[in-house]
Amino acid sequence: MLRLEGVTKRFGGLTALDGVSFAVAPGTVTALIGPNGAGKSTLLDCLFGVQRPDAGSIRLGERELVGLSPDAIARLGLARTFQNLRLAPFETVLDTVLVGLVARQPFSLWAGLLRLPATRHTERAMRLAALQALDRLGLAHKADWPAGVLAYGDKKRLELARAIVAEPQVLVLDEPVAGLNRVETEAVASELRRLRRAGRTVLLVEHDMDLVMRLADTVVVLDGGRRIAQGTPVEVQRNPLVLEAYLGQMEVVA
Known about the structure:
Layout: E1 2-11, E2 14-24, E3 29-33, H1 40-47, E4 55-60, E5 63-64, H2 70-75, E6 78-80, H3 93-102, H4 109-114, H5 117-136, H6 152-164, E7 170-174, H7 182-197, E8 201-205, H8 209-215, E9 218-223, E10 226-231, H9 233-238, H10 240-247
Parallel strand pairs: 3-8, 3-9, 6-7, 7-8
Antiparallel strand pairs: 1-2, 1-4, 4-5, 9-10
């Protein structure tokens, strides 16, 4: 269980997050939505140790995450993609995905230098896992390409492959289909459905309401740094506060 309780973050006189509380149940897809400036990015920064909340608690199971460094949080089993791509342009597609595994694997400098059998076996297993992640997202045939030459949609899917390859306890996706065409979006949606069937836990931050309503078990809505609604997709669609704050002309399910 990933649980946020009373998370508050201020920047000078501006309150970016005001006592936000919600939980992400294991094996579910929880969508976090809200208009621009609602506080979603600040909340993710607090979750991953980039920003420290002024108040509140963020716990993964029994472990408090507030105060931990981003690398320590990653080792506990949280992985993410970014709204703005974070890729090394001259690194190959395969090596980019392998980074997602190295962050979770214990590494011995001496074992690597000596090329011990156990080290070679681990490297082969990591390479296979990376290629499998790329294959599920339609990128295996570009494994040797530099990441920087990929089209935008391929880069978004590459970030997703890097995040999922280590099978994290909680996968946090920040607008994974932003800028993608219909075919690319469906490839991402297919992978998210596979993750849910496999019992993975996903926190999805997304503006694509069709994707959210199709995939999410629970939807949390932020507005002005506050949680204004939480429920199933149908319940959120019918919530007048949500319609006023964010969804606008979205058709209410009869």
